[in-house]
């Protein structure tokens, strides 16, 4: 066995060990897409927990002017990441990550009390297929945008949060265009990439049974957590646990 052959074997072994070490280290980038009728500020606690665990977390602040605009904004954030990324979506954010998840930097998808559509489905179509209750949704005067009546926000969206936190979410909610809610998605990324789904068992915005059905259809790894639609804010530790596990499992 000559020296050149031995050197080649050594180089191949070293390369494989470096690759294994990188894989073992896991996915470290997490990009979060918040839902409609909220903004990214509610994800602060979950973000801080994940950062303490060594993750690099970025939150997409979508305009929610159209589904296409929100997918484009998510892709802009994904392009800023260094290395593979776990893409997380809450509520309407699930519609966004189902398309943005095709970005080659995305290693896996996490749906948090989220819509998980099949090709050709819209948010309004899914929501009306199995209503969650009487959401107090109102239209702006121009008829183009939707919002939750601030007086009903806590009950509809964040029933398990302290009153002051729910009130802040109500004041900072991002109005959603009707166009975003009626847009139909293309081929969803969950068909080609591993996915996880958190079902909020006390959800009054999306029917928990609808969340279960969509996750089962997608073959997602499902975790049920007792909490409202704002599960990311009311149960940040448990949500962070699922995201961390997904990041680790994606790397295997």
TrEMBL record:
Q: Which organism is it from?
A: Neorhizobium phenanthreniclasticum
The keyword Transmembrane is annotated on this UniProt entry: no
Mind telling me what this protein is named? Alpha/beta hydrolase
Every AB hydrolase-1 domain range:
30-242
Question: Sorted alphabetically, which keywords does the UniProt record give?
Answer: Hydrolase, Signal
The superkingdom listed in its UniProt entry is Bacteria
Single GO molecular-function term? hydrolase activity
Q: Which InterPro entries match?
A: AB_hydrolase_1 (IPR000073), AB_hydrolase_fold (IPR029058), Sec-Metab_Biosynth_Hydrolase (IPR052897)
Q: Where is the signal peptide?
A: 1-21
């Amino acid at each position: 066995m000559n020296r050149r052959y031995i050197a080649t074997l050594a180089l191949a072994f070293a390369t494989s060990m470096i690759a294994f070490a990188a894989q073992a280290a896991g996915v470290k980038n997490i990009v979060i897409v918040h839902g409609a009728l909220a903004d990214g500020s509610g994800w602060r606690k979950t973000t801080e927990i994940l950062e303490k665990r060594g993750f690099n977390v970025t939150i997409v602040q979508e305009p929610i002017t159209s589904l296409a605009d929100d997918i484009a904004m998510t892709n802009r954030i994904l392009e800023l990441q260094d290395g593979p990324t776990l893409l997380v979506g809450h509520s309407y954010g699930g519609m966004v990550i189902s398309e943005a998840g095709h970005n080659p930097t995305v290693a896996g998808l996490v749906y948090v009390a989220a819509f998980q559509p099949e090709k050709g489905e819209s948010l309004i179509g899914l929501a009306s297929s199995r209503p969650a209750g009487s959401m107090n949704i109102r239209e702006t005067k121009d008829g183009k945008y939707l919002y939750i009546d601030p007086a009903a926000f806590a009950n509809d969206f964040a029933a398990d949060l302290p009153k002051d936190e729910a009130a802040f979410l109500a004041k900072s909610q991002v109005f959603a265009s009707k166009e975003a809610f009626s847009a139909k998605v293309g081929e969803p990324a969950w068909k080609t990439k591993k996915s996880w789904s958190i079902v909020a068992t006390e959800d009054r915005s999306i029917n928990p049974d609808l969340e279960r059905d969509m996750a089962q259809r997608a073959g997602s790894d499902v975790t049920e957590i007792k909490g409202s639609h704002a599960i990311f804010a009311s149960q940040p530790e448990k949500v962070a646990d699922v995201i961390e596990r997904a990041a680790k499992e994606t790397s295997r």
